[in-house]
Amino acid sequence: MNTLSAFTMWAQKNRWIWAAIGVLLLWLVLSVVTNRFSLSSLSGIILSASFLTVVGIGQMFVVTTGRGNIDLSVASVITLSAFVALLTIKGQDANLAIGVVAAVLLGLAVGLLNSLLVVGLGIPAIIATLATGYVLATATLLSNKAIPGFAVSPALKDLATGRISGVPIMAIIAISGVAATSFVLRYTVFGQLLSAVGQNRAAARLAAINNGRVIAAAFIISSVLASLDGLLLGAYIGGAFLEMGQPYLLQSIAAVVLGGTLIFGGSATALGTLLASILLILIVTTMQIIGLPPGAQDIVQGIVVIFVLALAGRQALTRRTTAEPADGATPKTQAKAAASLPE
Amino acid sequence: MSHLAVADQKSAVAMAPAMSLRQEIVALSQITKSFGPTLANAEIDLAVSAGEIIGLVGGNGAGKSTLMRILCGAMWPTLGSISFAGQTIGFVTYDTAEAQRRGIRMVHQELSLCTNLSVAENFFLETPADAASRPGWRRLYRTRARSALDAVFPGNGIDVDADVGHLSIAERQMVEIARAAATPGVRLIVLDEPTSSLDLDRSKQLRAFIRERAKAGLAFIFISHKLKEIIDIATQVVVLRNGRTSWRGDVADTSIDRLVQLMGGDANPVHQHGAAVAGAGDAVVRLSGALTSELGRDVEIARGEIVGLAGLEGSGQKDLLHAIFKPGKDGPVTRTGEAGFIAGDRQKEGVFPLWSVLGNISIGSLARRPSLGLVSDRLNRTAAGDAAGRLRLDESRFGSNILELSGGNQQKALVARALVADTPIILLDDPTRGVDIATKQDFYRLCNDIARSGRTLVWHTTEDAELLACDRVLVFAGGRIVKELSGEAITEAAVVGASFVHQVDKRADTTHRTAGAAGLARRLVNAAPFIGLAAVLAVMITANPAVASIFGLDLLLMPALSLVMVTAAQMFIVGGSEIDLGVGAFAGLVSVLSATLLYDQPWLGALALLAAVAVYAGLGGLIQARKIPAIVVTLGASFIWVGLGYALQPTPGGASPEWLTALFGWSLDFLPTSIILIAAVALVVLTIDRLPLGVVLRGFGNNPTAMIRSGWSPTRYALMRYLIAGLFAAAAGLSLTAINTASDINSGSSFTLLSVAAVVMGGCSLLGGVVSPVGAIAGAVTLSLIGALLGTLNVSSDYNAATQGLILIALLTLRGLTADRGSEQ
Q1: Hey, which of A44, A282, B128, B451 has its CA 20 to 30 A from B333?
Q2: How would you list the strands of the sheet with B219-223, edge to edge?
Q3: Which fold has domain B547-797?
């Protein structure tokens, strides 16, 4: 009992643990049920999960700014970036630098546009990134007509698909990214400011924090990561196609929420996003192994997201309700407390 | 028989003193409420009889709000019972709706009106039983509102058809009080700080009204920090302290001094500021321009000074604090040196709820450091420890979550935050609000110390007594400084005198002057969807006159019909301040269902359609019940809809049932079918929106707390909202099948985002509560014509999406620029 409650306390602060448990359980079940699962198949899963992790980390920054902020443009950025890579690199290693610069510039431009709309003009993030997505969709259609062919630079291909002593290079990139992000969130001023802005914007402003700059930084990080991810993903699949980024929209949000980052903002966990990405890919892989049709895979993914949110939603609820004795709670939390009564 | 009568007599005699005058309405007994380790209420008894006016006093955190929430059914106690007229009832069945049925009404401090609804509609929310779903149902509530307002506040001049959002705070307070008082069957009214925003005359009117109604048997609980009012109005006084009843008795047996003592402080808690250092230091803040025009000279605030801002609430004191915090270019305020801010509204502007006390303190020093600088817990702890020591804040609590602290200690942490920020100017926004007396005294001492150490304090307070601690006081009226008091001249009488004498109505004319131009611009933006639609049609008809024929218009507008219906669905969701990212996919699924199952096996198909709509509505209930973000849930649901569609029909195909095709395929000679159908959809949406149901849905979009307090069930109406949306989306799906005479699961996907765009274009607020059905539908038609328009102009259809996106951005930008300031937040 005591260890259980101690664990619950600990798990409340380390919400990534649930994703970790999920990965372990599913992995165990798969290993026992099928004999095909081995360490090498795990590395394949981690490779796929790495692409998701990179865009998920970006999404996590945006979600953490609070107020239900979500970057809906990541899918379009991934697709467009893959096309831009084909246009700039043209399959030549010599052009690789130009390609990387182009990808970063694309990310910066989209991120700046998003933050201009959200911070500068005060348009809600969902609508702003939705509109940006529309504009990028047209850009993608135009570049689709302009691409010379589907040649991919060999060096980039090596980076996206290669392994170092069995470990995918992509996984190393993703894991180092996660480590760096964890450090930034926990030990830098920016990480603290981000959390502050996500928790209480008015209080952050009065603590002399420049909210706009912090939020803009989150959107730029998200777009740049999505753009780099698109570059690598294009190299991995050996080209680009319309809608190739689409699955990453829901999955990136799912990875963030599943990993334990609060959807209401203010608290992020990069490790959780990594683990949740692996879990999501594991689920998809499992369904492929079982031989479920693509439709069923969609259904299962949707159910997982809703289910996890329904569980996580209650956690946030109890946290806010216990917060109430402090006088003069805001109307919203009061509403929540009142609404939770009949349960 | 006989001994029964005797027993009756006996008990009648025993109860006579109570019964003769007063009949007990409600009694709480032994109420205990714990939040984790803290006891908000401990063994409190409170009985209210007819005709009583109970003055309830106590410092904030004394447990008044908790007790009142329990009384009104908004919260259950941990222990204790409640009885009505001597009959105990279980708390399990006691909620806000039940409290209202039993005649208990509460007027909350932070007003419970829906600002997007009219005064009359707000009256409807409180007593919905008398409304009928037919035209003219508002008339009853208009009359009721009019007579209720006039009964309490004669000569109020409030328009009952005006949106509450357009009323002043005092007028809203009056509406809220009148609404509670006018409720049929009301027996007890709880007034929480009812006079906080009323001027003296209105406050007198209110008290006269209370006295008169109490004579007629209505009971009141009057909560106020203004003890003079309590002594004036109450018949009984209940004093709470630390969650317990510290005294209850007749008002004649007490006095202001005695009450203050009972609440836990001495009557004159404010210490005069020590040796005045005023005038010694250099000026750090300079106020000029319109702000000081009444004084006729600039005001300079020097180093080491404590300057108080006084006046009636909302006369411009807060605005000045914010102007000093962030001086505008060429504004009336200039400052040298950084300014720190200590907020009094801790929940909204102060604490970071996820963090520990330490985190809440040390953030103060972070904002001014480079973003990639490193944070060290050890250094933070040392810096915070210093500040906490001066504040008598226990360092062992640094690790606790900030919300586990009492209000007073939270405020200390916020002061510590300002101290570690180490700014030469510190702005205080009513920091002692809801803080216990002991902490207040620590606080006054600290302010003195801070000022002596050479820092400047600018202090806005709503407790006039606190101004005695200041070196100088600036008295505000109507947004300007009307009087400057210093030293001995600072007395409560002088402050009150100055703030009332200079009651000028300057604000009213400044707002009127700007309203003209901005109003025109706003109207233009609101008309944008119609202007846009007219322009698009004009261009197309000029390019190809055949478009103007009935056949041409049908060809063009029929495909818009499905989007129009999806937009109607989305509009109801947006009205609840949510967004549905799965609505297009849902329409696609319905289309697939109708072209496969419904075609092959009509009964099974109909059943499947019903089930789909039910699941869709259930999703809304889930979102509400679990408080989870609709965007993500509906995005997840969109995968489910698409997945189901694929599973049913892997490739496009199927066929439309004949009756369905006929439903959309008829034609009249003189009007295009598409226009009639679109107009019909608009009419249905408009009707729902104007019915009581629509008013309730808009109310939830604007102020769910108020709706819950009025006894409305949020989950039921979330279900209702999604059910309506689901029906419109399903109709859209059916229309897709009928128009395409086949189905494709992806046929609805593009509608999701377009519908959001159309709703926003149409003028609905994403914050919820503001819907404009006709605008949204015009927006939907315009957006669906973009493709055809580009075709007419010989532009590649690749630009379709970008054009739609840019239109959306442009409209939102325009709307953002013309909207009232503040309404966007």
Answers
A1: B451
A2: B104-107, B188-192, B219-223, B53-57, B236-241, B244-250
A3: ABC transporter involved in vitamin B12 uptake, BtuC (1.10.3470)
On whether any CB of chain A is under 8 Å from the CB of B351, the answer is: yes
Which positions in chain B touch A324 (Cβ < 8 Å)? 35
- pLDDT for B272 equals 53
ipTM field? 0.85
Task: Flag whether residue B407 sits within 8 Å of chain A, measured between CB atoms.
Answer: yes
Pick from A87, A241, A185, A177: which is nearest to B371 by CA?
A185
Which residues does chain B have within 8 Å of residue A257's beta carbon, measured at their own beta carbons? Answer: 632
Is the per-residue pLDDT at A78 higher than 90?
yes
**What are the chain B neighbours of A337 within 8 Å (beta carbons)?**
74-75
Is residue A124 within 8 angstroms of chain B, CB to CB? yes
Which residues of A fall within a CB distance of 8 Å from B325?
A: 206
Residue whose tokens read 């007599």: B9
Q: Report the share of chain A in percent with pLDDT over 90.
A: 49
B-chain residues within 8 Å CB-CB of A79?
Answer: none
Q: Is B192 helix (H, G, I), strand (E, B) or coil?
A: strand
User: Is B22-263 CATH 3.40.50.720?
Assistant: no
Of A156, A173, A21, A59, nearest to A100 (Cα)? A156
Chain A contact probe: residue of B627, B799, B814 with most A CBs at under 10 A: B627
Best to test chain A binding among B348, B580, B631, B756 (most A CBs inside 10 Å): B348
CATH architecture assignment, domain A37-322: Orthogonal Bundle (1.10)
Instruction: Spell out which residues of chain A touch residue B708, defining contact as CB-CB under 8 Å.
Output: 335, 338-339
In sequence order, the β-bridge partners of residue B401 are B356
Q: What is the pLDDT of residues B373-406, one digit of tens each?
A: 888 888 888 888 888 888 878 788 888 888 888 7
Collapsing DSSP to helix, strand or coil, B132 comes out as coil
Cβ atoms within 10 Å, residue A304:
18
By Cβ distance, the residue of A139, A188, A323 closest to B375 is A188
B218 pLDDT band (50/70/90 cuts)?
A: very high
**Where are the domain boundaries for CATH 3.40.50.300 in chain B?**
22-263, 283-506
In whole angstroms, give the CA distance from residue B666 to residue B674.
10
Angle at B301 between CA B298 and CA B304, to 5 degrees: 165
Q: Which of residues 42-101 of B touch A (CB under 8 A)?
A: 60-61, 65-66, 74-76, 95-96
What is the DSSP secondary-structure string of B287-349? Answer: E-GGGGTTTTS-EEEETT-EEEEEESTTSSHHHHHHHHHSPPTT-SEEESS-EEEEES-IIII
Which residue type does A209 have?
A: I
Amino acid identity, position A88:
T
- Where exactly are the structural domains of chain A? 37-322
- Residue from the list B433, B579, B816 with its beta carbon closest to the beta carbon of A122: B816
Q: Phi first, then psi: what are they for B772, rounded to 5°?
A: -140, 90
pLDDT for A99-112, tens place per residue? 999 999 999 999 99
| Every domain range in chain B assigned CATH 1.10.3470 | 547-797
Which CATH class name applies to B283-506? alpha beta
Cβ B626–A313 below 8 Å, yes or no?
yes
- For B640, the closest of A202, A293, A303 (CB atoms) is A303
| Nearest by CB: A192 against B363, B715, B757 | B363
**What pLDDT is stored for residue B583 in this prediction?**
95
Residue type, A166: G
**Location of structure tokens 């949510």:** B578
Determine, for residues A293 and B646 on separate chains, whether the beta-carbon distance falls below 8 Å: yes
Is B821 a residue whose pLDDT tops 70? no
Q: Is B345 on the interface with A (CB under 8 A)?
A: yes
B452-488 pLDDT, tens digit per residue, is 888 899 999 877 777 888 889 998 887 888 888 888 8
